[in-house]
Amino acid sequence: MDTVGIWSNSDLLADCLKDRLGERCRFVCGSHPADFAPAALGGDADLLVVAPDAAGLAGLTVLHPRLALLPGGCVAACRRVQAASAVSYGLGSQNTLTLSSMEEGNVSVALQRELLTLSGRTVERQEWVLPIHRGVETADHLLCLVGALLLLDCDPS
């Protein structure tokens, strides 16, 4: 069973992922790097999801997840991550996952370059038109949720 670390100061992202994926993964939630250290997890995380509200990102240097999903606006975090592969999300055009448009209760989420999921499957560049998820606080939170679903081999729609 894959171990997914969710680094956030709220339970919103973890609750959404658990609702969609159930018992497919072992979810570990925390708000500090020590929560995701190999000693705490019994090894490195398979996927580390760093939410937009995560704090203390300097601690990324001690973590070695197989995959990491990172807020693209945090350049320092992207440089420090010790993951085999990292995916960025955010409103900037250089992020792997970004919004391309918003209209009448829907958003278009664009995957700007292919990515490899946790299982090794390739997801090609594409867009999804999704309803705005009630309870998701910001565009970055929505992108983080979509990114985590994609990396966990789950269709975001």
Word description of this protein:
This protein is an alpha/beta fold and 157 residues long. The chain has a single domain, classed as Rossmann fold, CATH 3.40.50. Helix content is 21%, strand content 31%. It contains four helices and ten strands; from the N terminus they run βαβαββαββββββα. The protein has helices at 12-21, 38-41, 75-80, 139-151; strands at residues 2-7, 25-30, 47-50, 67-71, 85-89, 97-103, 106-111, 115-116, 122-123, 126-131. The strands form three sheets. It has a five-stranded parallel sheet. It has a three-stranded antiparallel sheet with strand order 6-7-10, covered by helices on one side. A two-stranded antiparallel sheet has the order 8-9. Strand 8 (115-116) and strand 9 (122-123) form a beta hairpin. Helix 1 runs parallel beside helix 4. The protein is globular, with a radius of gyration of 14 Å.
How much helix, percentage-wise, in residues? 10-25%
Architecture (CATH level 2) name: 3-Layer(aba) Sandwich
Please name the CATH topology.
Rossmann fold
Largest sheet, spatial ordering of strands: 2-1-3-4-5
Helix run count: 4
Q: What can be said about the biggest beta sheet?
A: 5 strands, parallel
Helix-strand sequence? EHEHEEHEEEEEEH
Note the beta-strand portion: 25-35%
What is Rg? 14 Å
- Which class do the helix and strand fractions yield? alpha/beta
Average the pLDDT over all residues and give the rounded result: 87
Number of domains: 1
What is the subunit organization of this protein? Answer: single chain
The level-1 CATH class: Alpha Beta
Shape: globular
- Unreliable runs: none
What distance lies between the first and last C-alpha atoms, to the nearest angstrom?
24 Å
Count of strand segments? 10
